[in-house]
Amino acid sequence: MKIIIIEDELKAAKSLASMISILRPSATVTAYLQSVESAVDYFSQNEEPDLIFMDIQLSDGLSFEILKVVKVHCPIIFCTAYGEYTLDAIKANGIDYLLKPFSKDELQTAFEKVENFKNFFQQNKQPDLDDLLKKIGIDEGKKSFLVFKNNKYTTVQTEQIAFFYIRNETPTIMTFQSQEYSISQSLDQIQHLLSSKQFYRLNRQYLINFNAIKEVEHYFARKLFVRLTIPTEDKLLIGKEKTTAFLNWLENR
Prior knowledge:
Layout lengths: L1 E5 L3 H14 L4 E6 L2 H10 L5 E4 L2 E2 L2 E2 L1 H6 L6 E5 L5 H6 L2 E6 L4 H21 L4 H7 L8 E6 L2 E6 L3 E7 L2 E6 L4 E3 L4 H7 L5 E3 L4 E4 L3 E7 L3 E6 L7 E3 L4 H9 L2
Parallel strand pairs: 1-2, 1-3, 3-6, 6-7
Antiparallel strand pairs: 4-5, 8-9, 10-11, 10-14, 11-12, 13-14, 15-16, 16-17
């Protein structure tokens, strides 16, 4: 079992890791993360672990902000000195909520909950929730993105984003108000988080919002030229082999 500990107090993280090694000797703590920013960077570049132990109040904000930026599917055990975040924890893949200081018996119970859930879903072959929602026609996608600009964190609502694009090799948000924000996820990762009905991947550099499309014109060599309400540095062209799929998307959203 691969485990990540998100805790801004290194002493507390090491103490937790010691308890884990006693209760689950085969488990490995693969990373210690101490802030929202470091956790977002880590999950954007690495595979998910099997389990996360997550403190709630970190040095640069609440850990729930991490889950607004990156999609985490594995179970989470929240470890905190505060009892008022229980409902938020349940909504964020929380399997258990341990109040500090907690005992080895409480930690053992938390591990058993994780294992019982895992066994249940394996036996019942429960489908991935995202896939299930798409199959039944519910494809809402991510509601907002946490961004960092001018030394401040702010939230950009997805409905306010005209398009995502690569600017100077960096994934960037462009809003309908012509505000730009750099983000850490790749366009492939972002595309997976969004509603496929609302956003379309035009090419390797642009992922556009349906509401940002001003007009679509025929172009040379049976291509399509897509013009957006927000001017773009590049001419947005769709090759003839992709025109049918794009036009179907426009019609069948």
